[in-house]
Amino acid sequence: MNTHPSESTPTAPKRQRNFGKSLRRFFKIVLLILGGLVVIGTFVFLYKKSQPEVQTYELLKAERRNLSRTTIVTGTIEPRDEVLIKPQISGIIAELHKQAGDVVRSGDVIAKIKVIPDMGQLSSAEARVRLAQLNLQQQETDFGRMQQLYEEKLVSAEEFEKAQLAYQQAHEEKASAIEALQIVRDGVAAAGANFSTTLVRSTIDGLVLDVPVKVGNSVIMSNTFNDGTTVASVADMSRLIFKGSIDETEVARLHEGMKMKVSIGALTGHEFAATLEYISPKVSTTAGQANQFEIKGALALPSGVNIRAGYSANAEIVLEERRNVLSVPEGAIEFVGDSAFVHVLTSPTPQTFSRRAVKTGLSDGIHIEILSGLKGGEQVRGNLITVQSPNNKKAVFKHP
Known about the structure:
It is a single chain. The protein is of the alpha+beta class. It folds into 4 domains: 55-66 and 323-396, Beta Barrel (conserved putative lor/sdh protein from methanococcus maripaludis s2 fold); 86-113 and 201-235, CATH 2.40.50.100; 116-186, Helix Hairpins (Orthogonal Bundle); 236-322, Elongation Factor Tu (Ef-tu), domain 3, CATH 2.40.30.170. The protein contains 5 helices and 21 strands. A 6-stranded antiparallel β-barrel has the order 2-11-14-13-12-15. A 4-stranded antiparallel β-sheet has the order 3-10-8-5, with no helix packed on it. The protein is 28% helix and 38% strand. The two termini are 102 Å apart.
C-alpha cells in the first residue's frame, strides 16, 4: 500500500517555524551571556576605581651643610685716584706730547700752550720796557759823571755809592720789564722756561686715560667762575675700586670690611677678591631708580691681569652665613601662613608620611635651615615621582 509523501514528511512551513524558534532561543542565550559580562565588567571596573592610587615621592634627607645668603650688586671698575689735568694759563694747544694709553711720571709734559696776549696788557708791558730803557740811559749818564767827579775827589763816597745804586736799579728795572713783556706775549720768561705755565705737566704717576683736546683747541685756566679746560685725565691703574649701588632693603645688612667676590664681564672665568670700604650715608638721587645707596670696594688686583677703567662688573656679597646647620631642600617645606611643615617618612613600602611642624631659619634659595622639629638623617617628602593607578597604568613625573 502506497503512502503519500506529504503524510510521512513534515511540511516546509513547519520546518521554518522550528528553525525560527531555535534561532530566537540562541539569541536569548547570547544576550543573557553578554548582559552577565557587562554586569561583571561594571563591578570589576567600579572595584578598581574604588582602590586608592599608589603615589611615589622623592625622598629628601635632612643633612648638615653651610648656608649663606648673598646679594649681587651691579657696578663698574674705576681707578681710585683719577686726576684731571688742567692748564694754569689760558691759550691755544700748540703741542700734544702724550695720548691716551701712555704711561706718565709726575712732572712729564703732556701739552704745550701758546698764549694769546691781551692787547691792553701787551701795550702796557711794551711801554714799561721803553720807560725802563730811557731811565737806564739817564742813570748811566749820571753815573758816568758821578764816577768822574769821584775820581777827581770832588764828591764824597756816599754820593758816588748812591749814583751807583740808582744805576744798578735801572738795570734791574729794565730786566724786569723785559720779563713781564715776555710773559704777556709768550706766557713764559726766558729765565723761568723750566717752570713755564705754558707747559701742562702730569701731577701724578699713572696712565693717561683720556686726552679730550686737540692741537688748536682753546683752553682756559681754572678760576673762581670756571672749572677750567681738562687737557688730560691720569689715573693710577694699580689701585682700582668696584663702584656700584645696592637697594635700601639690603643696605642695612652691610658693614665696612665685608668680603666681596667681583666678576668682570670682559674677563670671563676670573673672580677678584675685594673688601667693602664705603657705604654712602645718603640715598642716590639718580632719576628713575628706586632708593639706591652707593658702595665702594677695594679691589685686590693680581699681577699679570690688565683691567681697563669702566669695565662693567658684578659683586657678590655674603649678607648672612650659617655653618654646619641642619637643612633640607626648600621644596620640601610646606608653608601655611606663618607656619612651616614637612612630611616625614614613616614607612617606605608603601610610602607613608607624617605631617610635622618645623621652625625654619636662613635660606640660600635652594636649602633652608631647620632650627627645630627635625633630626639629622630623617627623610622627608619631596616632589611627586610616579602615580600607580588602579588599572596598572603608571604616570611618570619629571622635575627639574
